[in-house]
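Run log, item B.
One chain of 162 residues. Sequence copied directly from the ordering sheet:
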Amino acid sequence: MKSAGVLLLILPSDKILFIKRSSNLPIHSGEVSFPGGKFESTLDNDILDTAKRETFEEIGLQYQDYKIIDSLPPHKTVTTNFIVNTFIARLISEKCDFTINHSEVDELITIPISHLRDRKNFVKVPLKIGGDFYYNTFYYYSKYLIWGATSRILDDFFKKYD
């Protein structure tokens, strides 16, 4: 099983920052997700290091621009067998300089937390995969769809911070 670390970044304007992954990537291409990525034993001391390093590589966000405030339970991706570890971070200033690495990220997306919480902007669908039964939430925002592990992470975030 592979490990990944991501940051759920809350902006001072009470929005959550997402990335749209590059459509050129071999896996999870074009998906809306949190910044972060795969654990690299030669680069990372732990999974938090992974989330910080990958976030910097993808969007150029400096470590001093945010504060880690909590974490969420790990989630397994269904098709690629990653264990995704999520760290909740609060951006210190809305005026951060982001530098998008276009080989990994097509665009940055910010979505108001109030929009994501609004029941008219998501639907829960029962799924059965490999004998396992669970609900997956599909969040809608403008032209974007958030689903899979990212939506399950959002579900946990809203359960914890309701």
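Observations after the first pass:
- The radius of gyration is 15 Å.
- The chain is about 20% helix and 45% strand.
Flagged for discussion on Thursday.
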